C-alpha cells in the first residue's frame, strides 16, 4: 500500500510514480501509476492520478472528489469534449451561482459522482437552495492510497476518502475505490457511503457517466434490461419512441432530453446496459446490483460538437429531480447514524464487433418474453 495524500498523516507525496520496472511482477504487461499536478489557468494545483494497466489508461482527479476525467483504450475514448477544457480547481467554482448551476463551470469529466447530501436539479428544499448535483465532486479527497496486489490476478486499486461535512446538516464519508486487473479492458467501482452522524440522514448518489465520440454518433443505440421508462419532461415525452436511438450533433443549439428508467434485474439481481456505435464494433457495457442503485437516468444532449455533444448514462438511487420532488415519490433513501451503503459498478470496454454482438445477445436473452412499460406523460411536479 502506498499513501499519496493523507490529512491524518499531514502528507502529500507530490509527483510520484510506480511502474513495472520499479516493482517487478510476474506478468507480461507493462503498467504504471503516477501522480502529478496540473498548472496554469483555473486548473493550477489540481492533482491527477494516472493509471495504465497494460491495456487502458485512466485519469482520476482526487482534487475533485475522486471523479474520473477519462478512460482510453487503443482508439476508444470514454469521456466527452466539453467546452470546459481545463480541469477547473474547486476553489474557482461557486456552486450557488446562476441559481445553483455553478457546478457547470467545471463539468467535463467522464464519471462525475453526484451527491451525497443531495443531487439532481437545483431548487429550494426545506428553505435552502440545493445546487445542481450536490457538492461531493468539488471536495478534495482527504486520503488517497494505491494498492497493488503482488500475486495473480494482479490488480491495481486507487482508493480515496472524501468527506462531505456540513455542520448541523450532514456528515458523510465516501470511500471511493476504482480497480482493474493488469491487461484487462474491465474496471470496477466499489464505493461505500457512511453516515458519520449519530442521527438518520437522507442521501442521494448519481453515477453520472458521460460519453461522446467514438461511441456516441448518429445511429448509436442504448440497450438495457429495463422494466419501465418515463419522460423527465414534455420534450422527452414527445421523443420517447426514439429513446434508445441517437442522432447526429446539432448544427444549432438543441434542447436536452432525459429519460427516467427502472431497470430489470437478472436472476443474480444485476441490471445490464450497453451502448454501441452505429457500426456495432465499439461500445461500453456495464452492470450493477439493482438493489444498490434501483434507478437509472439517460441524458441526451444532442448539441453541437463545440457546445458539448454528449450522453449521460446514470445509475442512481433516484431520478435527477430536486430532492423535494424525489422525497415526495419516496426515492430519497436514508442512512441511520453509523450506517453504510455499498455501490458497485463494473464497466467493460468493447473494442470489437464480436464483443458488441455477444453483449447485445446477452441483454436480448435476458429481455426475452418481457416488455418495457413506457409512460408517455411526465411525472406530476409535487411542488405545484
Major sheet: 10 strands, antiparallel
Number of domains: 1
What is the CA-based Rg, rounded?
20 Å
Q: Approximately how much helix is present in the residues?
A: under 10%
Report the structural category.
mainly beta
Outline type: globular
Structure in words:
- It is built from 4 helices and 27 strands.
- With 384 residues, the protein is mostly beta strands.
- The chain has one domain (2-374): Beta-galactosidase, Chain A, domain 5 (Distorted Sandwich).
- The protein has a 10-stranded antiparallel sheet, with helices on one face. Strands 9-17-24-23-20-19-27 form a 7-stranded mixed sheet.
- The radius of gyration is 20 Å and the shape is globular.
Fold blueprint:
Layout: E1 2-6, E2 11-12, E3 16-19, E4 32-37, E5 47-52, E6 57-61, E7 67-73, E8 76-78, H1 97-100, E9 111-116, E10 123-125, E11 128-130, E12 143-148, E13 155-166, E14 170-181, E15 186-195, E16 201-202, E17 204-211, E18 221-224, E19 226-231, H2 234-238, E20 257-263, E21 270-276, E22 283-289, E23 295-301, E24 310-316, H3 323-328, E25 334-335, E26 340-350, H4 353-367, E27 373-374
Parallel strand pairs: 19-27
Antiparallel strand pairs: 1-2, 1-12, 3-4, 4-5, 5-6, 6-7, 7-8, 9-17, 10-11, 12-13, 13-14, 14-15, 15-26, 16-25, 17-24, 18-21, 19-20, 20-23, 21-22, 22-26, 23-24
In short:
The chain has 384 residues and is mainly beta.
Which short descriptors sum up this protein?
384 residues; mainly beta; Beta-galactosidase, Chain A, domain 5; ten-stranded antiparallel sheet; seven-stranded mixed sheet; 8% helix
Amino acid at each position: 500500500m502506498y499513501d499519496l495524500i493523507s490529512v491524518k498523516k499531514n502528507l502529500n507525496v507530490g509527483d510520484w510514480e510506480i511502474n513495472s520496472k520499479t516493482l517487478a511482477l510476474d506478468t507480461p504487461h507493462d503498467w504504471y501509476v503516477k501522480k502529478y499536478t496540473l498548472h496554469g489557468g483555473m486548473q493550477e494545483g489540481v492533482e491527477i492520478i494516472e493509471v495504465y494497466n497494460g491495456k487502458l489508461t485512466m485519469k482520476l482527479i482526487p482534487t475533485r472528489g475522486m471523479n474520473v476525467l477519462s478512460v482510453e483504450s487503443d482508439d476508444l475514448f470514454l469521456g466527452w469534449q466539453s467546452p470546459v477544457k481545463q480541469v477547473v480547481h474547486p476553489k474557482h467554482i461557486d456552486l450557488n451561482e446562476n441559481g445553483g448551476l455553478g457546478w457547470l463551470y467545471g463539468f467535463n469529466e467522464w464519471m462525475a459522482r453526484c451527491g451525497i447530501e443531495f443531487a439532481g436539479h437545483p431548487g429550494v428544499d426545506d428553505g435552502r437552495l440545493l445546487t445542481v448535483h450536490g457538492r461531493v465532486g468539488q471536495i478534495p479527497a482527504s486520503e488517497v492510497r494505491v494498492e497493488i496486489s503482488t500475486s495473480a490476478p494482479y490488480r491495481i486499486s486507487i482508493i480515496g476518502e472524501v468527506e462531505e461535512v456540513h455542520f448541523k446538516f450532514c456528515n458523510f464519508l465516501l470511500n471511493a475505490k476504482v480497480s482493474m486487473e493488469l491487461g484487462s479492458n474491465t474496471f470496477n467501482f466499489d464505493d461505500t457511503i457512511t453516515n458519520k452522524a449519530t442521527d438518520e440522514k437522507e442521501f442521494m448518489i448519481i453515477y453520472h457517466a458521460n460519453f461522446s465520440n467514438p461511441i456516441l454518433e448518429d445511429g448509436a443505440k442504448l440497450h438495457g434490461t429495463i422494466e419501465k421508462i418515463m419522460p423527465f419532461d414534455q420534450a422527452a415525452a414527445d421523443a420517447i419512441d426514439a429513446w434508445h436511438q441517437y442522432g447526429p450533433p446539432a448544427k444549432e443549439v438543441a434542447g436536452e432530453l432525459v429519460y427516467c428508467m427502472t431497470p430489470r434485474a437478472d436472476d443474480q439481481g444485476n441490471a445490464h446496459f450497453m451502448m454501441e456505435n452505429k457500426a456495432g464494433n465499439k461500445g461500453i457495457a456495464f452492470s450493477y446490483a439493482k438493489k444498490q442503485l434501483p434507478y437509472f437516468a439517460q441524458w441526451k444532449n444532442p448539441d453541437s460538437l463545440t457546445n458539448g455533444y454528449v450522453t449521460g448514462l446514470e445509475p442512481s438511487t433516484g431520478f435527477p429531480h430536486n430532492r423535494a420532488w424525489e422525497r415526495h415519490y419516496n426515492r430519497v433513501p436514508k442512512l441511520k447514524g453509523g450506517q453504510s451503503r455499498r455501490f458497485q459498478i463494473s464497466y467493460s470496454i468493447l473494442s470489437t464487433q464480436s464483443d458488441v454482438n455477444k453483449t447485445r445477445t446477452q441483454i436480448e436473452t435476458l429481455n426475452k418474453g418481457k416488455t418495457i412499460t413506457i409512460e408517455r406523460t411526465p411525472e406530476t411536479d409535487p411542488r405545484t
